Amino acid sequence: NAGVTQTPKFRVLKTGQSMTLLCAQDMNHEYMYWYRQDPGMGLRLIHYSVGEGTTAKGEVPDGYNVSRLKKQNFLLGLESAAPSQTSVYFCASSELLGTVSYGYTFGSGTRLTVV
Amino acid sequence: DQQVKQNSPSLSVQEGRISILNCDYTNSMFDYFLWYKKYPAEGPTFLISISSIKDKNEDGRFTVFLNKSAKHLSLHIVPSQPGDSAVYFCAARKGNTPLVFGKGTRLSVIA
């Protein structure tokens, strides 16, 4: 039972390069989220999805795109990386109980450095 | 504007004593509050939660208190253990919206 798996765990990008972070969950959760953690800033929501084929913007969506083509996967894309996107990225998923989501499960994070 | 605030970046406590971590919020519509614990190089893990209709929830050594009139909640850990040393995040939500997190408080429990 893997829970939430993020790949890669580490990556160094040059400014202007693109990359995709992959999040996979095996708990059949409806909701998935991407957060970034920066020193002194806590966890900030980038984008989230309330089901397969849906996405929505969070607090800090600029410079990122997402896709949820399959229920178990949530992809976060950086089209043209900038040093300000140096951060630790966490994916999470949660199940829907009635009309409310519960039980966020987080992945172990992707540490991205943009030089 | 920051809706969930943890004003103490760090806290040091002796082993066996009580740890009290504080959290303030500005959105009176929040109806569910949670605490997450995070070790280095790992993702946050759920610790304890409380609904806005309650003022206390207890789980073993961990107790969360909610004061809605003051828009304040606190996490009490008694007794504190060295394994409790971690970053603690307070989080809140309104209805089915995504969780909003505070900046975190780093707890160090000294043996």
Any chance you could write out the topology, listing elements then pairs?
The complex is a heterodimer of chains A (115) and B (111).
Chain A: E1 4-7, E2 10-13, E3 19-25, E4 31-38, E5 42-49, E6 56-57, E7 64-67, E8 73-78, E9 87-97, E10 100-106, E11 110-114
Parallel strand pairs in A: 2-11
Antiparallel strand pairs in A: 1-3, 3-8, 4-5, 4-9, 5-6, 7-8, 9-10, 9-11
Chain B: E1 4-5, E2 10-14, E3 19-25, E4 32-38, E5 45-51, E6 56-59, E7 62-67, E8 72-77, E9 86-93, E10 100-101, E11 105-110
Parallel strand pairs in B: 2-11
Antiparallel strand pairs in B: 1-3, 3-8, 4-5, 4-9, 6-7, 7-8, 9-10, 9-11
Produce a short descriptive summary.
The complex is a heterodimer of chains A (115) and B (111). Chain A has 115 residues and is mostly beta strands.
Structure description:
The complex is a heterodimer of chains A (115) and B (111). Chain A has 115 residues and is mainly β. Chain A is 0% helix and 57% strand. The mean pLDDT of chain A is 93. Chain B has 111 residues and is mainly beta. Chain B has no helices and 11 strands. In chain B, strands 2, 4, 5, 9, 10 and 11 form a 6-stranded mixed sheet that branches. In chain B, strands 1-3-8-7-6 form a 5-stranded antiparallel sheet, with no helix packed on it. The model of chain B has no long low-confidence stretch (mean pLDDT 95). Chain A binds chain B through residues 4, 33, 35, 40-45, 48, 58, 90, 92, 99-101, 103-104, 106-109, and chain B through 6, 9, 36, 41-46, 89, 91, 95-96, 98-104.
What descriptors fit this protein?
heterodimer; A: 115 residues; mainly beta; seven-stranded mixed β-sheet; four-stranded antiparallel β-sheet; 57% strand; globular; B: 111 residues; six-stranded mixed β-sheet; 11 strands
